């Protein structure tokens, strides 16, 4: 096994469906690239792996493992980084506690997650777990800006093999509901730090009596940094949510709530909690204290609250009160299992959940499994307008025609924890009525807000070098494609106005101002949808949140999934980070594998990333064989698309494992056929022949495995042996791959 510190390519160990896929695909990659002397390391950034690495003192020598995330966090700041990063779990509290429980049951002597820490020791444990919670991986690795797009071949495939799309009715009642004021959008202030203001700032809470509490100390603000502050009023949020519930009832639609509780791991679980409380209304007023005392936390979702109610003596009475509430229909995550939209904050993640509604023609599913229109509640207005405008557009124009639509690519400002996605350490729930302010190193107050108890206040920054690099990347992508290029920036929003002060002069200095437009997200959405409807392409040049949202929204509409996206992070120090797809770790797919031994995960993202990584290795290390392997990997990816070898969704049909066989075969055939490296051609000719000769045996061995339940020995940390056994069921293929 390659050492992670010296390996040429690092292929991350993650969670859930992509990790199952790796059990089948990694042996193939290793066999092929070893012919060029390329080693592949496997740093473990899985949720379970990160928990284990955090508590070495609790574990035996055999159980302990290295903190691979910290190692990768350093590596990505060096020019030699070449990392293939698969999607990992960004854990909500329910996921974190489930992972801890699984590890404990397997003999790991880990502390419980302290829901309500009291002692110093509990607070210390909580702080260590909080560092693992939510999106704790991606922001550490993303030391560069984001370039996400559909490869030409992938886009062509989608046009020629359109996925299903729900029809849009012009009288659809589906809509987006947002607050009309007192939200993050309304309260945002922003400034660019000057030389005189630079240095370590602090964030303070000033109580009504003048007492000052430091919320954050030693917060470095370099000159050129755009620094924002804003807050959402808890009171206004609560009354908005109560009204939204009534409004949904009056409309006769379903209540659905869309948040990013993983990336926004401090603010959004609180907002989610307000929604759970609003839904429970009088029941929470009457029993909230008892439920909280029993350990139920609305911020962890209705599921957590219901579990706490079950431990109370009057559980049946409380549940009867909940059932008797006059509520609209509820949008369901799984109507068969009774999992509602409000059960778990990580079950409805806005970047994937809103496009799913839009792709379905504005439809969701209620408690009875019936399909219907939905009120999509997204309290804050900073980004909700993109969904509102998309819905308006499709109501007016009908669903997108996948066979002719162009494509929206993204250039995203992401490096160095840019914008809101870096705000976890500087987000606070106001402890009382008072003022929250940012005090600069020179003593000046940069921003200050009058807040009430419970208001959600946050500050965030984006540094100058990442902004300049992002504009360069936008210029590059526009030059290479000639596409329409739009900076999605709202001149009326404080933060965006500061960014425009960077963007406008840079475009003018490059002599390219006429090739770019600057539009607020709503207008940019309408314009981009118009452009792709006409068959042309557009580049969305956006901040970090829109990067995340748009690289699911457009791919899910255009390609049926964001799993097929090319997702490159050009690290600012010269290294390469190749993310696989733009989506997540697909928990539903694991369930299907466990029940039916069918894995519908599509590894197209891994295929694309592998080709990029090998080509990058060829460039940076001057390894010509790596280049030959990279070009051949691209041919294999093309083969998968041309011959329709991607996994099917249904048991009994070819799945993820079949697609890996075909990828190996096309890859070997391309290597055998090329003439740039005779040695590689000679080496792969017999492999290609064996794979072709073995087709009938291999595909029937793979098919024979499907159907019965599959035992993988754990959810968050499956057994390596069982995983390999399930994911590599073809003895014929294994004999060739070794
Ligand atoms: N880059 C990263 O590290 C990311 C991590 N995440 C994490 O992933 C988890 C799940 O997030 P969620 O919002 O449910 O989003 P997912 O992207 O995991 O899943 C949404 C749906 O997208 C489809 N899908 C996604 N990837 C693939 C693929 N490779 N092949 C086929 N279909 C695919 C599936 O649809 P269908 O059911 O129709 O098959 C799936 O159910 C969370 O823990 C989240 O934090 C989320 C986004 C990015
Ligand atoms: O890091 C995460 O939690 C999610 C990341 C994500 O959704 C994305 O990058 O598109
Ligand atoms: Mg995303």
From TrEMBL:
Name used for this protein in its record? isocitrate dehydrogenase (NADP(+))
**Xref: NCBIfam families:** monomer_idh (TIGR00178)
- Molecular function GO terms recorded: isocitrate dehydrogenase (NADP+) activity; metal ion binding
Q: Which cofactor does it need?
A: Mg(2+)
Per its record, the protein catalyses: D-threo-isocitrate + NADP(+) = 2-oxoglutarate + CO2 + NADPH
Source species: Shimia abyssi
Per the UniProt entry, what is one GO biological process? Answer: tricarboxylic acid cycle
Which keywords describe this protein according to UniProt? Glyoxylate bypass, Magnesium, Metal-binding, NADP, Oxidoreductase, Tricarboxylic acid cycle
